[in-house]
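ok, trying the design again with the full structure, not the truncated one.
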């Protein structure tokens, strides 16, 4: 199993001090936001040592109800500029089992997203031969029917295990598999989630890697979800004493090739 630590960037193109910190920490991976960042950010990170670059396709309109054809038509130009700048790996959307990210508007079940993803991926590959597409990281944990104040609907109508079961074909259609992993304390960081609560730093090993052992896994968002998580993530990478100099909008990712 090979891995490389890196960052998931915030909503702005990198500032010089952020690039200096990236270089000083010896990071090699970066995940940008297609539809948010400019293509110049790709060159900026390459110049400071990034050699694993991915982008999440950000598409707020998905929560208003969009078909795969509409999604591709709306984002093809941004994807094209990223590809021309040298980035060819894209995670399609984010946490599709939550109502903030399209559930209940663009799809109503894991089965529907399974079909939505495959159609969108096929359309993108027709336009961009050689593009590498990632199945998005899911919101971890069982169904959470508490009302999300942003959407006015259940926060997570379908748990990630059930959603993943329904999306088996979409995962196999993807070039890599996005994963989210969260914990609340040091003990949970080392756990496989024995209580099936959705937390556990090693939960992804059993839920994702053992199920799809030949797929590349990108842990696209992870860390301690309580206060101070930025420092925790940096300390976990290499014990950097300059943890507080990293902006709070920056998150850390691990790219794993199993």
């Amino acid at each position: 199993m090979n891995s490389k630590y890196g960052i998931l960037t915030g909503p702005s193109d990198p500032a010089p001090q952020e690039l200096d910190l990236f270089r000083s920490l010896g990071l090699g991976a970066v995940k940008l936001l297609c539809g948010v960042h400019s293509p110049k950010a790709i060159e900026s990170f390459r110049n400071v040592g990034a050699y694993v670059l991915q982008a999440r396709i950000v598409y707020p309109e998905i929560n208003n109800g969009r078909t795969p054809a509409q999604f591709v038509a709306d984002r093809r130009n941004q994807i094209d500029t990223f590809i021309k700048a040298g980035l060819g790996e894209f995670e399609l959307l984010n946490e599709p089992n939550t109502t903030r990210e399209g559930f209940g508007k663009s799809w109503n079940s894991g089965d529907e997203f399974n079909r939505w993803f495959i159609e969108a991926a096929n359309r993108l590959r027709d336009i961009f031969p050689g593009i590498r597409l990632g199945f998005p990281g899911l919101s971890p944990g069982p169904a959470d029917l508490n009302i999300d104040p942003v959407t006015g609907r259940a926060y997570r109508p379908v748990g990630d295990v059930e959603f993943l079961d329904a999306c088996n074909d979409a995962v196999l259609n993807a070039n890599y598999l996005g994963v989210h992993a969260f914990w609340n304390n040091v003990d949970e960081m080392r756990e496989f989630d024995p209580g099936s609560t959705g937390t556990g730093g090693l939960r992804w090993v059993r839920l994702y890697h053992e199920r799809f052992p030949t797929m590349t896994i990108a842990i696209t968002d992870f860390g301690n979800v309580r206060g101070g998580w930025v420092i925790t993530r940096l300390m976990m990478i290499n014990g950097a004493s300059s943890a507080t100099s990293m902006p709070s909008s920056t998150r850390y990712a691990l790219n794993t090739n199993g």
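Keeping the full-length input from now on. Residues 228-258 have pLDDT under 50 and may be disordered.
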